[in-house]
Amino acid sequence: xxxxxxxxxxxxxxxxxxxxxxxxxxxxxxxxxxxxxxxxxxxxxxxxxxxxxxxxxxxxxxxxxxxxxxxxxxxxxxxxxxxxxxxxxxxxxxxxxxxxxxxxxxxxxxxxxxxxxxxxxxxxxxxxxxxxxxxxxxxxxxxxxxxxxxxxxxxxxxxxxxxxxxxxxxxxxxxxxxxxxxxxxxxxxxxxxxxxxxxxxxxxxxxxxxxxxxxxxxxxxxxxxxxxxxxxxxxxxxxxxxxxxxxxxxxxxxxxxxxxxxxxxxxxxxxxxxxxxxxxxxxxxxxxxxxxxxxxxxxxxxxxxxxxxxxxxxxxxxxxxxxxxxxxxxxxxxxxxxxxxxxxxxxxxxxxxxxxxxxxxxxxxxxxxxxxxx
Length: 374
Hints:
By secondary structure, the protein is mostly beta strands. It has helices spanning about 20-25, 55-60, 130-140, 170-180, 290-300, 315; strands spanning about 5-10, 15-20, 25-35, 40-45, 70-75, 80-95, 105-110, 120-125, 145-150, 165-170, 185-190, 200-205, 210-215, 225-230, 240-245, 250-255, 270, 275-280, 305-315, 325-330, 340-350, 355-360, 365. A hairpin with a 5-residue loop joins strand 3 and strand 4 (about 40-45). The longest helix is centred in the C-terminal third of the chain and has 14 residues, at about 290-300. It comes from Kineococcus aurantiacus.
């Protein structure tokens, strides 16, 4: 059982520093949303008045302007968790005659927003595979404390300079995301473990490791989840076919898409059937290696037919549920009990209250493990 939750904020232009205690005391609510393969976002609501330091000092000095870097840290039973390292993108100030209704709202996104500001056209790349191209782009963000973790693609496609030259069209973020989609990978920033540091992950969704404490529902005193619902989508699973054009004869050849799940072992004994068959468009002129990578990516993206959503109170759960990892479910019955991948988590913090909304995913029904770790 958690008996203490403490919120800390850091802010600054390049290097975020702890904000004055008066700012932390003015916090009315903090919401942070983190999801696999997507940009994370945050919203901070600060109580304000015409005589408060926020109104008299921080707003005129531009200390809360768009572009300011903000780090959100929550300490639970003495253990700090960096929930967000991002940039303010929008500031709203609302004032009222009613006591306690005036507030300043800061909305922002994680540091990938800085990778999405400078759009480029036709910038050439060295002859590198996709993983090398990602590292080439991420080196520009080392000064922000962004350390890359890049997993080489399964089917590397190194362009031959005399045949074609790879160029960048779009922002760094758009290009890295495209490379991730083409290879069935995800790209995201994982803040921490220390404030001011982030890990830029480009690779497959990793569904192995030690599960987090189980989510228990309908188990009387052992229940730790306020609500939990599941759905099985029969149209989510798709069987993908890929056709490429043989360069000499110009004949279209079908390339089989294999089942590759080294880092995504099955979490369910009974996978949901793939009711749809879909030819992957736009691969006829690709090399067989690149076409195979795109087919595998599309097949991976459509594998999660079972999804779950719920809400928990962190004080009751006893832990901070983290996204992009495994968690067990108990009390939902034979079909839906077992291990799941945590796709997203939304942290909601208010004075004296800390709740989390979450979404779970896996490929089918019935657990692969006889017992879910508590």
